[in-house]
Design brief:
The structure is a homopentamer. By secondary structure, the first copy, chain A, is mainly beta. Chain A contains no helices and 9 strands. Chains in contact: A-B, A-D, B-C, C-E, D-E.
């Protein structure tokens, strides 16, 4: 799974029925070890109530439709969690429990 | 999902039965933050009535067949929405509601 | 989907039962806008009666098994159409209807 | 499949129901021939009781949900084995049976 | 599908039940036109009785589980054939029928 930051929104009126009622967000992927921007933003569908500024975990590919309520959604990536903490190689690189 | 612009068409007479009646379009992927061309064009199947010049959202991979009417179509990417607006990092980068 | 040209064949005697009776072809991917070679050749399975020299459309990934007769074939790309014409950005880049 | 080393952990409170009770780990991919770091770390879900420091095998993509107990988990890669030995081109490059 | 050469083995004691009894092999991908090493080795599961030194065809992604006996195996690539001959652009680049 990928870690990213929600940085934007997409609005579409004319769309596949499976997308109706789904929130489309723009996600900036992050370097997990440094929690800095890395790579190009992409469009993801929110599955957990995420919003602008949240650090999120994204599932990519066919499994994106295994998120709850997504079994009939034509989606290739879904936001499946809001991240609290990440520890890599002995260092806490993200700690959102205490507002870091 | 990817954002792109419809820039062309493909016509095939001899094809898999699942493709009969489907519109095959050439899509130019876009840099979402700048709405400029980025990367190589590819062939997508229209699922929402898109046409030349439209800015569209494309789903890639196995989920492309979850678009309505695509369950038996051998397709690895499908146009699932026509994009109205995109806002990234506080800036409205695309606004097709008002003809921008 | 990818556009390519059939440039070769692969023969295997010892193979998965799902491949028996299937024609394995080598495909050279093409730059769609210029119809010139781009990238490395790969092996695809024929789903439409294609042969050496044909310009074909290839579906990649899990959807490759949605081609007619491929539901039990372990295949990650299938030739699903022979291309007649491609028009990109206002230019007809391929026209095989009239022998171009 | 990919070979990697478990180097960290991710904790999420707000998440898809399918992730509840699953251990989320950060994996550093390895060059299989030299068993040295190669490429960027990613988040994987543990399917075999792996922990920090273990050399593991990871399955990527839609098949990640075929691991035991993962059929309803929105996951694009799963740790499916802890590696004992790897032999490549006549050399034993990893031997964890004897504590190498 | 990819063409590669079997160059090694992986042994895991602690693993997903779906992997029990499966042979895990290290595969060196090959440039199909020149039959020389190209890219990094990866781990594949044998589906056809392949062994060290064999030139094999590998299916990648979700379809890897369509190989016979793999429907419950968490696998993202499977060896599905041993290659006899490859002809590309008019040249026989591999001929293992006659021991080339």
């Amino acid at each position: 799974m990928t870690i990213g930051k929600v940085v934007g929104t997409v609005v579409c009126t004319q769309k596949d029925p499976g997308l109706v009622g789904k929130k489309m967000l723009v996600v900036q992927p992050l370097d997990i070890e440094k929690i800095v921007d890395k790579g190009n933003v992409f469009v993801s569908i929110d599955g957990v109530g995420a919003g602008i500024g949240d650090i999120v975990m994204v599932v990519t590919g066919g499994s994106a439709r295994l998120a709850e309520g997504f079994s009939k959604v034509p989606v290739d990536n879904t936001i499946i969690a809001i991240v609290d903490t990440i520890e890599v190689k002995g260092t806490v690189v993200l700690n959102n429990k205490e507002g870091t």
